[in-house]
Automatic annotation (TrEMBL):
High-level lineage: Bacteria, Bacillati, Cyanobacteriota, Cyanophyceae, Pseudanabaenales
Keyword Oxidoreductase among UniProt keywords: yes
Highest taxon above the source species: Bacteria
Function: Thiol-specific peroxidase that catalyzes the reduction of hydrogen peroxide and organic hydroperoxides to water and alcohols, respectively. Plays a role in cell protection against oxidative stress by detoxifying peroxides.
Documented EC number(s): 1.11.1.27
Group of enzyme by EC: oxidoreductase
Pfam family, one: Redoxin
Domain Thioredoxin stretches: 1-176
Record protein name field: Glutathione-dependent peroxiredoxin
Length: 176
């Protein structure tokens, strides 16, 4: 088990009104330090944008509990997936995600270095993230919730401990 999140550079897209044309976005690299440095962050990772559990339960519930999670000493709530920035942007629009930051791990580098990259070729997904959540405090992993049954081509996609309610209960327990 890792003590700290790995150092990687995420390839993200940010809105920039100085970019002409119908697509006013530019590439922006975000490092692990940019995202986690000096902050307490809740990150949850899921197999893929637009997939059923991720779209109907995982992301929406974190979005719903966002303010309550933040009130417990959390600076940011991040959803990570092994998808590119374009897919994550369109998924965020479709989900009407206003608060949770959707972080693309397009190459799966962060996920691989976390030890959470799994083969989901049995579903035609290729390499994806196993479902998990964690609290990261200035780069140090404070607590991790990893779904049971981790492994390549797992017969199921458990969703029992990486959910927003489990995270909220943990945050409340360490607050008191």
């Amino acid at each position: 088990m890792l003590d700290r999140v790995p150092d990687v550079v995420f390839k993200t897209r940010v809105r920039d009104e100085s970019v002409p044309g119908p697509n006013p976005f530019r590439w922006q690299d975000l490092s692990t330090q940019d995202i986690f440095g000096g902050k307490r962050v809740v990150l949850f990772s899921l197999p893929g944008a637009f997939t059923p559990t991720c779209s109907t339960s995982h992301l929406p519930r974190y979005e719903e509990l966002y303010e309550e999670i933040k009130s417990l000493g959390v600076d940011a709530v991040i959803c990570l997936s092994v998808n590119d920035a374009f897919v994550m942007f369109q998924w965020g629009k479709q989900q009407n995600a206003q608060n949770v930051f959707l972080l693309p791990d397009g190459n799966g580098e962060f996920t691989r270095k976390m030890g959470m990259l799994v083969d989901k070729s049995n579903l035609g997904f290729g390499m994806r993230s196993w479902r998990y959540s964690m609290v990261v405090n200035d780069g140090a992993i404070e607590k991790m919730f990893i779904e049971p049954g981790y492994g390549d081509n797992a017969p199921s996609d458990p969703f029992e401990v990486s959910d927003a309610d489990t995270m909220l209960a943990y945050l409340k327990s360490v607050q008191s």
